[in-house]
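Example 3.2
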Amino acid sequence: MTFDFNYILVGLMEIFSHFVQGCTGFGATVIAAPVVTGLLGTDVGVPYGTLITMPMLYFLGIKCFKEVSWKDLLKICILMAPGMIVGNILFGSIPANVAKVCIGGVVTVIALKNIYEAFIRDPKRIKEGWDPESPEELAKANSVPMKVFRYACLLVGGCVHGAFNIGGPLITVYTLYSVKEKGRFRATMTWVWIIMNTCFNMVSQYSAGRYDTPILWSALAIGVPLAAVGFFLGHLFHKKINRELFLKCVYVCLLVVGGDMFIRALMAL
């Protein structure tokens, strides 16, 4: 075991990132990634990002097992799996910053669109008698172009998640349109990461010998307890908010995640 003050700084970041994870079901790895990889390096930061989320994911996955939308979970896993395999194979050969600029840009645009609709357009339209659950609106959401777009998000999200562990925002875009209830949304997202991280990322990282470093385990020994604090605070906050506020929180988190990823990667090019 080793000690470095950077392990504490990384752990403090995990409090905030896991608060978001506990509330929304996504975001911990991507939000913390700039600090984690900046202080620990990519070779340690990527497996660290995978392992630190797992204790909380397993806990919540068991707790909310009955709330999972299994139909949507199956679709996500089937469409993500090929991309994750490709991403793991191509790790190191794909310019990380190029991938982050593209993913961050797409997620930022989607988040801005949803924020505009949730905070400005929809409240005004509801006052005028508009029904977001009307057959016409549901038909638009399930049109062929929208379905193609959502499935493309899963394929690309799987690829970048396998390579850099940053596919969460794109996977969230799909799930937002498919799983409407906040508890089912978080439960489904939780099981996405349990399955994908356990079956793909952890196996590939272990096989590549990326766990054979005392730095990783020393950082985790400090980071996991701090991440647990943030996670359980987020879990309590999740119980207190309604669906509309929950979705607004998700949209804002997407904007923060996507915007941060886009700006940082663009500046590094």
